[in-house]
Amino acid sequence: MNPLIDQLSVAALVGGALAFFIVRFLRKRAAGKNCGSDCGCGTSKASKAGR
Amino acid sequence: MASPVSTSAAPSSSREVTRYVAIAGNPNCGKSTIFNALTGLRQKVGNYPGVTVEKKTGRFFGSHGEAMELLDLPGSYSLQVRSPDEAVARDVLLGRQADTPRPDAIICVVDASNLERNLYLVAQMLELNIPIVVALNMVDVAEKNGVVIDIMALREKLGVPVIAMVATKGVGLIELRQAVSRSPLPPPTIWTQMPIVLEREVMGLARQLPVAPDIARAEALLLLTLHEAALDEVTHHDRAIIEATKAAQQRLGTAGIDPISAPVDARYDWIGQVCAAAHHTGDSHFAASVSDKVDGWLTHRVWGWVAFLGMMALMFFCIFTVAQVPMDWIKDGSDWLGKWVTDHLPESDLRGLLTDGVIAGVGGVVVFLPQILILYFFLGILEDTGYMARAAFIMDRLMSKAGLHGKSFIPMLSSFACAIPGIMATRTIENRKDRLVTILVAPLMSCSARLPVYSLMIAVLIPGHSAMQKAGIMLCMYLLGIFVAFGMAWVFKRKLLKGETPMLLLEMPPYRMPSWKGVALRMWERSGLFMRRAGTVILALSVLLWALATYPKPSDPKATPSEALAQSFAGRMGHAIEPAIKPLGYDWKIGIGLIGSFAAREVFVGTMSIVYSVESKDKEDIAPLRDTMTNEKRNDGSPMFTPLVCIGLMVFYVLAMQCISTVAVVRRETNSWRWPLFQIFYMTGLAWAGAFIVYQGGKLLGFH
Fold first, then answer.
1. Domain B17-181 has CATH 3.40.1390.30
2. Alpha helices in B568-658, H assignment, sequence order
3. Closest to B374 measured CA to CA, from B314, B299, B286, B445
4. Which of B70, B165, B186, B607 could anchor a disulfide with B593, C-beta 3.0 to 4.6 Å?
5. Rounded to an integer, what distance in angstroms lies between the CA atom of residue B549 and that of residue B571?
6. Transmembrane ranges (chain B) (predicted)?
7. If we measure between CA atoms, which residue out of B527, B475, B215, B595 comes closest to residue B371?
8. ipTM more than 0.90?
């Protein structure tokens, strides 16, 4: 595999994972909610709406 | 059983809401079942009083297609509240809740098998000046108990529509929807005859209140029935109103009327008249005797405990035996996928990320899905059959010795699934100190996220042993969590949050056949949440952990995998905390696992998968984690995962906080950072001490 493509793919995946946590944190802060949306506790918007 | 109404639910509809309807009623009368059936939405429906503590709304459609918003209120016995969740119901009905409009109509759910007690709340609802439809639920249970209710007579006496229902079977739902759709709904009539002097004082106070005229009387009556201490805590009225209330109470006292008990007596007088006309009891001897006989065993001082522990042991036995086959399928699938990627991609970092990071990390956690499903299957059945209340009764004897309130049982039991709903369920506890103690110890209950860690460590500890032995060790871990929780509660109650614990008043719901559909739905919902978590948080964490365990790469291209891991960011972090964990028998690689799982316990398994896959990257196959860990050696050649290390790690995870979502919920529920920080500190200390005692104590006794 081309080393450049290899490194770019890895960087994109790792960057995506980091971005996931940053966006998650910002969304929760904006919504004023402390609980994670996927912990199963039933406090998320999705759980409240029953979806 | 399919509901005839649920098919029409369309929560995403943009049609304007024509009516805002609240569902209210005593705990455990079937409110949530009716809510689910009307809206088609799913939520937890249990037998124990007080399950509904969250605000739940949904949309449903009337008989002419008009959209209505439905609000499921927390269960309450009266509007004289005793706990935070009852206060929510009262505040919504009085229009005090800022984020919720005052309902246009109330569906007041009444348990037909407990008519007299349930009518007390109806009497208060009728005083609120909001149109009411009474849903007389569980008429089948009432009939089985020999109770016959004259619906026409009840309708006449209450002056509002009364619909006979069996919500679990969908009986009466169409009639209920039609009744709620009526426009306009008949206004309620206040039937309770208060003493004239009291009525005069109520109206006098009502005129002074700065609230809408239609709720002024109800507000005034609620104020007049408050004790002096409770009056001083009222914040939603001016001081002048409080003083006027106290003056009115004094005048009533002088007139020989107790303002607190007089309205209660008046309501029960009216309830007596209603029951005399509409409630007839027949022969309930047989049903009562069977139920009593079963209770005689299940709540017995000795046999009750035998039954309780037996059920727990059976649950863990099934977790290890029944779950094994699907677990093997998932593991084979994960291994096959890893091999396929290895075969089709050339040697590169991307291949390493996909096989050692994504597949090993996510696969390592997903493999425990069958065990979690079985756990929820058992919890669902125990809840649906009504056994949970009996378990609460048995546990109360033990809990009261630790200074815990009997109502702490449900939060603690819920924490076996997840500490977050457990902590939220503490809202049913009236006393603030009792509630705080429960919040502080609830995360010590072994939640489902610990299950993968226990399973992995037990597999490393006793490979090839019988499922019974494995279940025994698992049961010990669960019991350890329970006993440490009680011990810590005892300490907190005596040192930190002193105060008397009120006695437990518990309603025993009748034994019922579990709703298989409900149990299946709950398992489906939980597996969906678990898989979503595996596909999002755990996937992202696995990618990051792989990167931390891979970069920076060693400058020497001939470095062994172990040397490469040691030089990575994760290796450096593991080395940094090694002095603190060395006394526990752990090395820096386990340290990586502990750091990686700080946000969520189950990530430990995925982290270990990544650490050991990264280390053994020369292999063509992804080696099974258990075997890799079993063969792992220390620098001196001795095995790394000795029995003491395995047990110590399990004890660490029983006692450690290691869950960022729980920290956030404790922060929200206690409204301060003080308690969650204290909780992290004490639980981490306890976990370290527990693992230290196991490892060092075991070594002193000659074990290894």
1. no
2. 569-581, 588-596, 603-615, 625-631, 643-655
3. B314
4. B607
5. 7
6. 302-323, 358-382, 436-459, 471-492, 530-549, 640-665, 677-695
7. B527
8. no
Residues 348-387 of B with CB under 8 A from A: 348-350, 353
Q: Are strands B17-25 and B67-72 parallel, antiparallel or unpaired?
A: parallel
Among residues B662, B540, B547, B667, which one has the least CA distance to residue B600?
Answer: B662
Integer CA distances (angstroms), B336 to B331, B467, B620, in order: 8, 26, 12
* DSSP secondary structure code for residue B506 in this structure: -
- Per-domain boundaries in chain B: 17-181, 196-281
What is the number of residues in chain A? 51
Indicate the residue type of B432: R
Domain at B196-281: CATH code: 1.10.287
CB pair distance less than 8 Å for A40 and B541:
no
Specify the residue for token string 């969908």.
B170
Provide the 3-class DSSP secondary structure of residue A27.
Answer: helix
Please state the φ and ψ torsions of residue A49, each to the nearest 5 degrees. Answer: -80, -5
Strands B67-72 and B56-61 come out as antiparallel
SS3 (DSSP) at B429: coil
Cβ B38 vs Cβ B6: under 8 Å: yes
**CB pair distance less than 8 Å for B353 and A13:** yes
The token duo for B334 is 């994960």
Q: Which amino acid is at B115?
A: L
Tokens of B248: 């009115």
Choice among B8-17, B555-564, B622-631, B681-690 with the minimum mean pLDDT: B8-17
Name chain A contacts of B350, Cβ cutoff 8 Å: 1, 6, 9-10
Residue B600 dihedral angles phi and psi, to the nearest 5°? -155, 130
Cα–chain center distance at B315: 19
* B302 to B197, B295, B296, B307, B507: CA distances (angstroms): 55, 13, 11, 9, 21
**Phi and psi at residue B510, in whole multiples of 5°?**
-65, 155
φ/ψ of B79, rounded to 5, equals -85, -5
Residue recorded with tokens 């390592």: B364
Q: How far is A23 from chain B (nearest CA, A)?
A: 12
Q: Which amino acid is at B314?
A: L
Distance between CA atoms of residues B279 and B273, nearest Å: 10
CA distances for B20 relative to A11, B66, B72, B205, angstroms = 51, 11, 11, 29
For an interface test with A, the pick among B33, B543, B662, B671 (most A C-beta atoms closer than 10 Å) comes out as: B543
B-chain CB neighbours of A6 within 8 Å are: 348-350
Cα–Cα dist A3/B22, whole Å: 62
B552-593 tens-digit pLDDT: 888 887 777 777 888 889 889 999 999 999 999 999 899 988
Per-residue model confidence as pLDDT tens digits over B468-487? 888 889 989 999 999 999 99
User: Smallest CA–CA separation between B532 and chain A, in Å?
Assistant: 7
